[in-house]
Amino acid sequence: MRGAKAGQQSKTTQQAKTTCPYCGVGCGVTATVEAGTLSAVEGDREHPANFGRLCVKGSALHETLGQQGRLTHPRVDGVEASWDTALSTTAERLNTLRAEHGNHSVAAYLSGQLLTEDYYVANKLFKGFLGTPHLDTNSRLCMASAVVGYKRAFGADAVPCNYEDLEEAELIVLVGSNLAWNHPVLYQRIKVAKERNPLMRLVVIDPRVTDSCEIADLYLGIKPGSDAYLFNGLLAWMAKRRKLDTLYLERHTEGFDDALAAAQQTAGSVAEVAAACDVDPERLETFYYWFASQLHVVTLYSQGVNQSASGTDKCNAIINCHLAGGKIGLPGAGPFSITGQPNAMGGREVGGLANQLAAHMDYHTPGALDLVSRFWATDSLTPILPEGPGYKAVELFEAIERGEIKALWVMATNPAISLPDAARVRAALEKCPLVIVSECAAHTDLLPYADIVLPASGWSEKDGTVTNSERRISRQRGMLPPPGEAHHDWWIMCEVAKRLGFAEAFNYTHPWEIFDEHARLSGFENGFDNSSLPGSPQRLFDISGLMGLGRDGYDALAPIQWPVTKAAPHGTARLFEDGEFATANGRAKLLAIKPQGPEQALSAAYPLRLNTGRIRDQWHTMTRTARSPRLMNHRAEPFMDVHPDDAHNAGLIDQGLAVLTAAKGEFRARVRVSNAQRRGEVFVPIHWTDCFTQQARSSALIDSITDPLSGQPESKHGAVALAPLATDWQATLLVADGATELTPWCTSAYWTRIPMRGCQRWQLANTQSVNDWLAQLKMWLPGDVSVVSQDPTNGRLRAACVENGQLRWWLMVGPPNELPGLAWLEARFNEATLSDTHRRRLLAGCDDGAADTGPVVCSCHQVGQTTIVNAIREGDTSVEALGARLACGTQCGSCIPELKSLIEEERPNARTKQSLATEVV
C-alpha cells in the first residue's frame, strides 16, 4: 500500500520554476503543485539572483493563495456582468469619451506588479492606438529619480552593475535603504561575502539605525534630505586629496569641471558637510577616505534617495563620485539603484512611464515617433502617435481633478492608498466619469470608485516575464488556472482593443507572441549606422537576441541579463566596461549639483520630520501578505517609531496610542519608543489601508510635492505634529471567520484588524466610556456571552461566546500588554468542539501552566520573544546557539539583527554553561 500511495502522489505532484512577485531582487522560486493546489515553495537553487535563498515573504507565497477574497466576476456599474458585456461596455464608453473630448482625455495607471507582456500591450494600446500619452505607473513613486539620474549621466536608463558585484566589492555603501528588511536576500549575500572576505567594508547611510546596520563597519545617521551635500562633499574631498581618476575623466566623461565647482561651492569642507548632514566630522572623513582609497566600490541606493523633491540630483551626486574615481564598469564597482517592485524595470523597458515611448525610446529620441509608428503599423491612425510626454502619476490625478482626464484604467495598483495627499486622489476618482479597474483582490480601497471592474489573474496564474534590479529577465510561470472568470491582463486589454477596432494589432494568443514582438522592437533599426535615425547612438536596451524563441523556447527561457544580441547571445553581466556610454558622443556626463532641502517645511504647527517606508514581513498595501497570518505577527498593528525625548515631550509611553497630524490628514497608531530614531523625526510604515485599520494611511500625511525632473513624490520628508490619542478604554476582540459581517466597533477612535488562522483579531480603543459592557457586547456581537469575568473597579473584563461547542468570539477589555499569548486562543477557533478543559480556560486565554511565547520575532519558524529571552538566559548567548535550539534565524535570516539585540540586552541575565552544569549537579 505504501508504494501504491507514493506512486499516486508522484502523479499528482508537479514542480515549476517561477519568480517571486515581491521586491526587485527577482528571486527564483521552485513551486510544488499537488492535486491542483500550490502546496509549497522554496528558493530555486539554480537562479542566479538568490541561489536558493528566500525571505519570509517569499517562503510564505503558497499561504497567500486561494479563492477566498478574490475577484472572480466582472462588474459594470456595481452589477455583476458577463465578460462580453463588460468588455463591450468598456470599449463603448472609451470611444464615446474620446469622440467627445479627444484622445488625451483617456489615461492608464499601471503597476510594477504587471508582467512585461501586460505592460507592453497596455503601452501599445494607449499610446499607439488610443493616441494618448497619459500612461504612467506606480513605479513613478519609487524609481523614477534613479531612471532620470542614469539617463542624464549615461544616456540611457541602464543599471551598470549586477549582484555579483556586491560580492566582488571592497566597499559597499548602502544609502537610503534598509536592505535587511526590504531586499533581505541581497543583504544575506553581502553578509556571506563579508564573512568570506574580512577586508570588505560596509557603510550604512540612513537617518535611522536599521537592521541593516548589524554588519556595518561605519554608520552615518545623516539629516533627512542631506544626501546631495554628503556626496558633493565626497567629490570635493577626492579632488582636494588628489584621489580622482583623471585619465578616466579625460577619456570617458564630460562636465567634470562644472560638477566639481558646484561641489566645492556647496560642500567644500568636511566641517561644512558635517554641519549640513548633522554627522560627526571624523566619521564623515573616514567614509570619504574609504571611498576614495578603494577602486572596487558599489553604492547601493533606493527609496531614501529617490523619494525626494530633489531625488534626481541626489542620484547624480552619487554617480558623479563613481565617474570621478573611475569606479564603474569594473567587477565590484558602480552606482547601483535597487528597485522596489518585481517588474519596475520591465515596465521601463516597454515604455510604461509617461515620458517614454517604447523600448527605452523617449519622445525626444531622434526619429523614434516614426520608427515606433512604422513598427506598430499605426500610420493610418490620426494622430499616428502622441507627439510628447504625458502626465506623470501625481500630475495625472491632478488632471483628473481638473476634469481634463475623463477616463482612467487602473491595473494592479491602489492609488487611493499609495499616492500622496490620498484624500485629493480619492476626490479626483469620485469625480472621474469613467474609472476602469483590473484587479485580483475583491476588497481594496480603489474598488468603490470603479465603474467597471475586471477580474484579473494573480501570481501563480500569470505567465510572462519580469526584469529584476540587475537587468535580469526571468520567467514567471503560470501553474494554476485563474479562479472563477478571472483572466490575464494582456488578454483583457486585447479583447477591448478588438472591440475598439484594432483586432489585427492585438491578435495575440499567448504571451510568447507579445514577448517576441517586444524583442523585435528593441532591435528594430537599432545601430550606429542606422540611416533612418541620423545622429542617434545605438539604443542600449536590446533583446533582439531573444527573437524567434517560439513557445517552447519561451517556456524554457533561463534567466538572462540584457542587452541580449547576436554579439552577446548569453546576455551582458556588466555595462560600460569599455568606457563607452549611450550618449551621442559616447561620454558619460557629470552634473553640477546644488543640494536642496526638503520642500515640505517644518513649522511651529508641524515641527517633526516624517519618514515613511516598508517593514520586514509586509508588502505594499497587504492585499497579498495579509492573507498569510504568520506574516502579520512581527508588526501586527500600524505603528510609529519615536525617539524617547520626543515621546517624553509629547507625553507618550511605549505601546501607547498616538496621533500624527499633518496639513493633509491624520495617522493613528501605536507608539514604539526607539533610540534608532533621530530626535525630531518619526517613522511610519506605508502598508496599512482602510481595509485593515482606521486613519493609518501614511499617504494622508504627505503633500503632493514632486521632483521637477522625475515626477517622483517627496514621500520621505513629511512635516507632522505628535500628540497622545486620549482613550477611555482599550480592548482586544477575536472573532471567528464568518461569525459576523457587521463591524459596529469600527466607529471606535482607533481600530485595526489583524487576520489570524480561523479568526480575525481586532485591537480597539475609544474616547467614550462604556457603562455596561454586557449590553455593549449584545449590540456588537451575535450569540450570548457564555463566560465572563469583570472587575468594575478598574474596568477590566474578559468574555467569550461558545455556540454549538465552537468558540465564536473572545474579548478582553484592557491594554494589549495584559494579553496572554494568543496562539492558544487562535487554535481554539479551529476546533470543531471545545473540550471541557479548554472551555474552562477560555478567560485565562491559555492552558494551565502553558508558557507565553511573546511577540513573534522569527516569522519563518514562529518563534516568540519570550521563548528567545528564556533561551538566552539559559546560556544560549549566540545567534548560532539560538538557531540550534529554536531554529530562529536559520531560514531567511531577517530576524538575526533582532536576535542580536535581544542577546545584548539579556546577556547580563544569562547563565553560563558552567553555572548551568553546577546547578544540575
TrEMBL record:
Cofactor requirements of the protein: Mo-bis(molybdopterin guanine dinucleotide); [4Fe-4S] cluster
GO cellular component terms, semicolon-separated: membrane; oxidoreductase complex
GO biological process, any: cellular respiration
Gene3D superfamilies linked: 2.40.40.20, 3.40.50.740, ADC-like domains (2.20.25.90), BFD-like [2Fe-2S]-binding domain (1.10.10.1100), Dimethylsulfoxide Reductase, domain 2 (3.40.228.10)
Residues annotated as domain 4Fe-4S Mo/W bis-MGD-type: 13-69
The keyword RNA-binding belongs to this UniProt entry's keyword annotation: no
CDD domains xref list: MopB_CT_Nitrate-R-NapA-like, MopB_Nitrate-R-NapA-like
Alphabetized InterPro entries for the sequence: Asp_de-COase-like_dom_sf (IPR009010), BFD-like_2Fe2S-bd_dom (IPR007419), BFD-like_2Fe2S-bd_dom_sf (IPR041854), CT_Nitrate-R-NapA-like (IPR041957), MoPterin_dinucl-bd_dom (IPR006657), Mopterin_OxRdtase (IPR006656), Mopterin_OxRdtase_4Fe-4S_dom (IPR006963), Prok_molybdopt-oxidoreductase (IPR050123)
GO molecular function, one term: 4 iron, 4 sulfur cluster binding
Family designation: Belongs to the prokaryotic molybdopterin-containing oxidoreductase family. NasA/NapA/NarB subfamily.
Name of the protein described by the UniProt record: Molybdopterin-dependent oxidoreductase
Source organism per UniProt: Vreelandella sedimenti
